[in-house]
Amino acid sequence: MQQTTRNIVMVRPVNFFSNPETSESNRFQKPEQQPDCAQSAARGEFDGYVAALRAAGVQVLVIEDQQPGDTPDSIFPNNWISMHADGRVFLYPMEAPNRRRERRDSTLARLRQDFYIESVTDLSGFEAQRQFLEGTGSIVFDHQARVAYVCLSSRSHPAVLDALLPQLGYRALPFDAVDRHGAAIYHTNVMMAVGRRLAVVCLQSIRDPQQRDRLRASLQLAGREIIDIDYQQMESFCGNVIELADAAGGAVFAMSSRAWHSFTPAQQARLLACGQVAHAPLDTIEDLGGGGARCMVAENFLPPKR
């Protein structure tokens, strides 16, 4: 099973702002910094990031968000959809009611133009029980080892995980991760990332020594070298990175410019020894949305039609 893909889906926003329905559980949001020009700033950052990814050899399918623009977090599509190499697509239950509107049949129709979709499994029925699992925000997949890393929070419920993972043939490795103030980290993908050779993890956020050792051992057993980041780096979105692939299959580490400049020189050198880095300024998106470069990318492993 391939760990990375060259094909990704991104959604260009039409009405981006700091979502009040998500701020209670997302401590990375800074709604007090909301400018009048949030949408235009976010759109500019989005386009700059797409350009950086394409320049690095990544294939980006850009979907335009639809009016009336009542989906402020549409820029983070990885939370509602995952696309797999066997043609299966999964749709996920979302905590915030206004985020549920991001699941669009039109996006699936656009994907079907260029990719084979064998089945679509909709897990959104769990929303009625207030049980949520927000895609590859909640889950960081190690596809090679078939492990699903999940930090538990109000957005990552074990019942949904139990419904999903047997269908994929993966095992769960759940744990508790908290920010520097002791609050649960809302999504796994802001505190860790797993690539082919490297894993970026904020081990400091896992307070339970047994859980921390179990996660470290799992990554090392799978052959991953760990880049351990601290709280300050996590808050600068160093954990919110993703390894993609270029045309030749080489590694492309995608991240915000803030994250790149927050890695130490030694950590930067380790990343560059394994691949190229594609970064762009995403300050508005990170500050207001509480998510960044990895959240903006929905990996597309579906078989292409051509």
UniProtKB/TrEMBL annotation:
Gene3D superfamilies: L-arginine/glycine Amidinotransferase, Chain A (3.75.10.10)
Pfam families, per database record: DDAH_eukar (PF19420)
Domain of life: Bacteria
Signal peptide positions (record): none
SUPFAM superfamilies: Pentein (SSF55909)
InterPro entries attached to this UniProt entry: Amdntrnsf_FN0238
PANTHER family membership: AMIDINOTRANSFERASE
NCBIfam families: citrull_CtlX
Protein name stated in the entry: Arginine deiminase-related protein
Lineage of the organism: Bacteria, Pseudomonadati, Pseudomonadota, Betaproteobacteria, Neisseriales
